[in-house]
Amino acid sequence: CRCQKTKKSLVQYCAILVGGSDFVERCLDGRGRSSSKRKAEHVTAQAMVRIARAIIAGRDGPTLVAQVSPSSFQSTDVLSLIAEKDISSDNQFVILSSIASTATELLASDTLLTQARQIVDKATSDSVDHSFVSKYIAFSPQVRRILAPIDATDCGKFICIGMNYVDHCTEQNAPIPTVPLVFNKFGSSIVGPGDGIPLYGPTSSSKVAHGGTSKCLDDGNVVTSKLDFEVELGIVIGRTVPRFTPASEACDYIGGYTVIHDVSARDLQLEANGGQWLIGKCGDGYAPTGPVITTLDEFNLDDKKGGAGDLQIECRLNAEAVQSSSTSNLVFSTPEIVSYLSKFMTLESGDIIATGTPPGVGCFRKPQLWLKTGDVVECEIERIGTLRNT
Description:
twelve-stranded mixed sheet, four-stranded antiparallel sheet, 9 helices
């Protein structure tokens, strides 16, 4: 039984009357924290909670926001402003900086997440006054730039899983792994939507094809001649994961999912550094991330795969699809990955895990396909969004 106007259930209304919104969380959860047992609907179900950071005109520094589609707004006043500004097709933003300054701070607290949902739902309700609009809503013309939702200072560990799509293993004629293949990037690899991907490729006069050839600096600052694309689903850890956490409990600690472009210098990854992947993966700008973190409760957790059991995932190069698959092809699910890593390390709020890429990457094409200056790469995952970089 649900109210057709507000979409709240009768149980939620009773809980609000008894103990307020915090009590609602405990009623739905049973333990006062996010749980893998929760359904894919939360207390305030009108709008998606998509956490982002933005540079907004008139505000100092990065601002924590929630991205909201224009169709979510119900207030006549807000809709008229959107129409007046002729931005009806653009995503708008709800300002969350009054409750948290970073995504990691927000994801680590159920109380703050509840407050964020309340602000988003108020913004998308049919009764919003002018003072609320001016304080909490940033229309797209005010947004100067969208940043990565988590930056280098908030990301303690950037872990990656290789060979984690069945169809990606198939395209290489490689066996399917029996345990996750783990490597890493660094926080300094993170850039945001719209940021450039550094190439540092050789010129016609360069004496080397990549920077791993010699110990000396090369003329022209050559880094790679084989820069590749990889779209990946990114796990964002919401709170500290205890060591040896079983997969059945791992979702309690996942804050949400984001899109990652795992830029890869294949020559440095596969032809240099003694076969170690690190320098081919960890370069500055080699991890475009964003545009948002979609909180875990927006996914269908009944799939027993952390809500990521069947999400469409695609990479487009200059508007042409080069990778297209589904997370149903993941070898190891997101809860299994978190559980496995907890054997060896303590995962903390803000840590990012790139979960692998589907088939279609440039190095396994015939002929091979490498990124070049001016290429536009779009990485898109269902229910999260599109990450675009050049």
